[in-house]
Amino acid sequence: MMLRDLQRDFRLWLVTGEAAAAARLPAAHSAGLTVYQNNYRAQLVGCLRASYPLLRARMGEDAFLHAVIKHIGAFPPYEWTLDAYAQDFGATLQKLFPDNPDLHELAWIELALGSAFVAADAAPLTPAALAALDWDGMRLGLTPSLRLARALTNAADVWHAMSDAGAAPEAAMLAEPGWHVVWRSGFVSCLRAADALEGQALAALAAQGSFAGICDLLAERLGEDAGVARAGALLADWIGAGLVTDASSTP
């Protein structure tokens, strides 16, 4: 057997437990072969437990482990690092628990916080850096650690309560949809809730980089004076939070 074929069959058996693949392996009849498969699965279980500690506590061990086992069967690792393995767990949760958007959002929050922690560094912008810029042509860059998602439930409140070891509220739908905003400030990953308009403005800025575009968006929703005032207030807030890391102006 060529090494390439041996590696292919071993991986196939490791991931799927396929009997035909096992039969082609030289050690197919060795009881010790199952040690590799048990270790493979244990590593993936451990990865998901480490990535979603609050989700695990929220769901309960049995329900969480059930989802993990289903996920391992459907999503073998595809990256060189286990850090990436947790990325698709949300898809498994949506399939297994379609009527629990609070769990989907809590999973997103935990994944986003972990991802933000290892994102590239970027020094936050200071208000003084804007003084010499033309605001009409101003372009802004946001921190590489920024993560955004729409919020339909109170998952952010649940996360904050559980993180503080407090009693988490019951799952509930928000009266008005909003956004989850995640980023890293220094060495701490942060989560805050944003209303629908702020979330849309922040997402537009992340995609287009134009401050004038944000002003236009908000003016369309709130009227010109109120929209421009809201844009200025949001920019000050984002700079204060360390979300803005670069600014320039175009002619």
UniProtKB/TrEMBL annotation:
What protein name is recorded for this chain? DUF2063 domain-containing protein
Question: Per the database record, which ranges form the Putative DNA-binding domain?
Answer: 6-90
What domain of life is recorded for the organism?
Bacteria
Which organism is this protein's natural source?
Answer: Telluria aromaticivorans
Q: Which InterPro entries match?
A: DUF2063 (IPR018640)
